[in-house]
Amino acid sequence: MFVLSEPQARMLLGTTAGALVDVGAGDGEVSRRFAHLYQRQYATEISASMRKTLSAKGFTMLDTEDWWREQKFECVSMLNLLDRCSRPKTMVLQARRALAPSGRLLLALVLPYKPYVEVTPDHKPEERLPISGATFEEQVQSFVEFMRDECGFELVTWSRVPYLCEGDFAQAYYWLDDSVFVFTPTAQATETL
Fold first, then answer.
1. Angle between helices 88-98 and 136-151 (to 10 degrees)
2. Which of 21, 68, 107, 156 could form a disulfide bond with 182, CB atoms 3.0-4.6 angstroms apart?
3. Number of domains in the chain
4. Is 15 inside any structural domain?
5. Superkingdom of this entry's organism (predicted)?
6. Residue 102: inside a domain
7. Which domain holds residue 63?
8. Which position has the higher pLDDT, 31 or 173?
9. What is the number of H-type helices and E-type strands within the chain?
10. Distance separating alpha carbons of residues 164 and 110, to the nearest angstrom
């Protein structure tokens, strides 16, 4: 699976220092390309085998429910997670609480938005992001407005990148349109958690 290279991450994030947390990190292969830019690397992951793999790669593991409560991070990374989790808005608000005042939220989201949640019986999220529009560009605009108006984030930069992921019996690999955003918390936004 490939989302960002180190040069792309440097260009999008700008200054890197302090602590990074990769939320829903999987095996850490996507974020390992840029996690070393930060002095301290943390991760969350629900899979026990992936937690073991992440620990072996040098990530300090945090609890999946409380990762955002105790510590402030200069970067919260959520790569291709929001369309796979049950409560995406809640996760974004948790990220906002966990960010240092000048911190960055690095977020990747495949568009068109088609959520699929493995842990719910109907595979639908409990919270659905209010993303609308027929085109990639309309969905990007809708998502940025949601992040600003409902979550208290300002867009710093974004990019459209090919998201290459492992295939299956039908196809060797898949290529999706990934939108990669960098947000900062707005000063005037009120905490909702």
1. 60
2. 156
3. 1
4. yes
5. Eukaryota
6. yes
7. 6-185
8. 31
9. 5, 7
10. 11
Return all residues near 137 (Cβ < 8 A) that are at least 6 apart. none
What whole-number distance in Å separates Cα of residue 69 and Cα of residue 46?
17
CA distance 178 to 40: 27
Tokens of 10: 């440097």
Distance CA 113, CA 13 (A): 24
Q: What is the C-alpha separation between 148 and 186, in angstroms, rounded?
A: 8
* Residue 181, Cβ density class (10 Å: 0-12 exposed, 13-18 middle, ≥19 buried): buried
Tokens of 106: 């690095």
Instruction: Judge whether residue 130 has pLDDT over 90.
Output: yes
Tens digit of each residue's pLDDT (9 = 90 or more) over 69-113: 989 999 999 999 999 999 999 999 999 999 998 899 999 999 999
The answer for residues whose C-beta is within 8 angstroms of residue 151's C-beta and 6 or more apart is: 89, 92, 93, 96, 189
pLDDT digit string (tens) for 20-44?
Answer: 999 999 999 888 889 999 999 999 9
